[in-house]
Sequence to fold (140 residues):
Amino acid sequence: MTDGRPTVVVLADDLIWATRLASIVERIGATPQMAGTAEHFLASLAGSAGALVDLSLRAADPIAAIRAASSAGVPVAAVGPHEDRTTREAALAAGAGRVFAYRKLHADGPRVVGRALGLPPAPASGPATAGRSTPAAGVR
Fold:
Protein backbone atom coordinates (compact mmCIF):
# COMPACT_ATOMS: atom_id res chain seq x y z
CA MET A 1 0.00 0.00 0.00
CA THR A 2 1.05 3.53 -0.70
CA ASP A 3 -0.51 6.38 1.31
CA GLY A 4 -3.20 3.97 2.50
CA ARG A 5 -4.15 3.08 -1.08
CA PRO A 6 -3.66 -0.42 -2.46
CA THR A 7 -0.98 -0.92 -5.09
CA VAL A 8 -1.66 -2.57 -8.44
CA VAL A 9 1.32 -3.65 -10.52
CA VAL A 10 0.91 -2.79 -14.21
CA LEU A 11 2.99 -4.76 -16.72
CA ALA A 12 3.00 -2.91 -20.03
CA ASP A 13 5.79 -1.80 -22.35
CA ASP A 14 3.74 0.26 -24.81
CA LEU A 15 3.75 3.88 -23.63
CA ILE A 16 0.16 4.57 -24.68
CA TRP A 17 -1.28 1.47 -23.02
CA ALA A 18 0.95 1.80 -19.96
CA THR A 19 -0.42 5.32 -19.46
CA ARG A 20 -4.03 4.23 -20.01
CA LEU A 21 -3.73 1.28 -17.64
CA ALA A 22 -2.09 3.43 -14.97
CA SER A 23 -4.94 5.92 -15.31
CA ILE A 24 -7.50 3.16 -14.82
CA VAL A 25 -5.70 1.97 -11.69
CA GLU A 26 -5.70 5.53 -10.31
CA ARG A 27 -9.40 5.92 -11.10
CA ILE A 28 -10.24 2.86 -8.98
CA GLY A 29 -8.48 4.48 -6.04
CA ALA A 30 -5.26 2.45 -6.19
CA THR A 31 -1.65 3.38 -6.84
CA PRO A 32 -0.14 1.99 -10.06
CA GLN A 33 3.30 0.41 -9.78
CA MET A 34 4.57 0.46 -13.35
CA ALA A 35 6.69 -2.42 -14.62
CA GLY A 36 8.06 -2.59 -18.15
CA THR A 37 10.00 -5.81 -17.68
CA ALA A 38 9.20 -9.23 -16.27
CA GLU A 39 11.91 -8.82 -13.62
CA HIS A 40 10.49 -5.55 -12.34
CA PHE A 41 6.97 -7.00 -12.43
CA LEU A 42 7.97 -10.04 -10.34
CA ALA A 43 9.88 -7.88 -7.85
CA SER A 44 6.86 -5.58 -7.45
CA LEU A 45 4.26 -8.27 -6.71
CA ALA A 46 4.99 -8.61 -2.98
CA GLY A 47 2.41 -6.65 -1.04
CA SER A 48 0.42 -5.62 -4.09
CA ALA A 49 -3.37 -5.85 -4.15
CA GLY A 50 -3.44 -6.95 -7.78
CA ALA A 51 -1.78 -6.98 -11.16
CA LEU A 52 -2.85 -5.76 -14.59
CA VAL A 53 -1.03 -7.28 -17.58
CA ASP A 54 -1.02 -6.10 -21.20
CA LEU A 55 -1.06 -9.20 -23.41
CA SER A 56 0.67 -7.30 -26.23
CA LEU A 57 3.99 -7.15 -24.39
CA ARG A 58 7.01 -7.18 -26.66
CA ALA A 59 9.83 -7.49 -24.11
CA ALA A 60 8.36 -10.19 -21.85
CA ASP A 61 6.07 -13.20 -21.88
CA PRO A 62 2.72 -11.98 -20.55
CA ILE A 63 1.43 -15.52 -19.96
CA ALA A 64 4.45 -16.39 -17.78
CA ALA A 65 3.96 -13.14 -15.86
CA ILE A 66 0.29 -13.96 -15.24
CA ARG A 67 1.23 -17.46 -14.09
CA ALA A 68 3.82 -16.04 -11.66
CA ALA A 69 1.43 -13.47 -10.20
CA SER A 70 -1.35 -16.02 -9.85
CA SER A 71 1.03 -18.50 -8.19
CA ALA A 72 2.01 -15.77 -5.73
CA GLY A 73 -1.66 -15.33 -4.81
CA VAL A 74 -1.99 -11.92 -6.47
CA PRO A 75 -5.27 -11.33 -8.33
CA VAL A 76 -4.56 -10.71 -12.02
CA ALA A 77 -6.55 -9.08 -14.80
CA ALA A 78 -5.25 -8.92 -18.36
CA VAL A 79 -6.06 -6.85 -21.42
CA GLY A 80 -5.40 -7.50 -25.08
CA PRO A 81 -6.66 -7.22 -28.64
CA HIS A 82 -10.18 -8.56 -29.14
CA GLU A 83 -9.13 -10.51 -32.21
CA ASP A 84 -6.43 -12.49 -30.34
CA ARG A 85 -8.75 -14.91 -28.61
CA THR A 86 -6.07 -17.62 -28.34
CA THR A 87 -3.79 -15.42 -26.21
CA ARG A 88 -6.71 -14.18 -24.15
CA GLU A 89 -7.77 -17.78 -23.43
CA ALA A 90 -4.15 -18.68 -22.56
CA ALA A 91 -4.16 -15.82 -20.04
CA LEU A 92 -7.23 -17.28 -18.34
CA ALA A 93 -5.62 -20.72 -18.26
CA ALA A 94 -2.48 -19.16 -16.68
CA GLY A 95 -4.50 -17.71 -13.81
CA ALA A 96 -5.94 -14.36 -14.89
CA GLY A 97 -9.28 -13.89 -13.19
CA ARG A 98 -10.54 -11.79 -16.07
CA VAL A 99 -9.29 -10.91 -19.53
CA PHE A 100 -10.64 -7.84 -21.28
CA ALA A 101 -10.47 -6.63 -24.84
CA TYR A 102 -8.95 -3.16 -25.16
CA ARG A 103 -12.30 -1.79 -26.31
CA LYS A 104 -13.95 -2.92 -23.04
CA LEU A 105 -11.51 -0.81 -21.06
CA HIS A 106 -12.36 2.23 -23.13
CA ALA A 107 -15.99 2.02 -22.06
CA ASP A 108 -15.84 0.56 -18.55
CA GLY A 109 -12.18 0.40 -17.51
CA PRO A 110 -12.21 1.45 -13.86
CA ARG A 111 -15.41 -0.41 -13.03
CA VAL A 112 -14.47 -3.75 -14.60
CA VAL A 113 -10.81 -3.69 -13.51
CA GLY A 114 -11.75 -2.80 -9.94
CA ARG A 115 -14.27 -5.62 -9.84
CA ALA A 116 -11.83 -8.09 -11.43
CA LEU A 117 -9.14 -7.33 -8.85
CA GLY A 118 -11.58 -7.33 -5.94
CA LEU A 119 -11.01 -3.66 -5.18
CA PRO A 120 -13.92 -1.54 -4.00
CA PRO A 121 -15.42 0.77 -6.60
CA ALA A 122 -14.17 4.33 -6.70
CA PRO A 123 -16.69 7.16 -6.45
CA ALA A 124 -18.56 7.73 -9.70
CA SER A 125 -16.93 10.35 -11.88
CA GLY A 126 -18.69 9.91 -15.18
CA PRO A 127 -21.81 8.56 -16.81
CA ALA A 128 -23.72 6.09 -14.71
CA THR A 129 -22.87 2.48 -15.31
CA ALA A 130 -25.60 1.05 -13.11
CA GLY A 131 -27.49 -1.84 -14.54
CA ARG A 132 -24.66 -3.16 -16.68
CA SER A 133 -23.72 -6.70 -15.87
CA THR A 134 -20.45 -8.45 -16.45
CA PRO A 135 -19.90 -12.21 -16.16
CA ALA A 136 -17.85 -13.25 -13.14
CA ALA A 137 -15.07 -14.73 -15.27
CA GLY A 138 -14.09 -15.22 -18.85
CA VAL A 139 -13.06 -13.50 -21.99
CA ARG A 140 -14.82 -10.24 -22.84
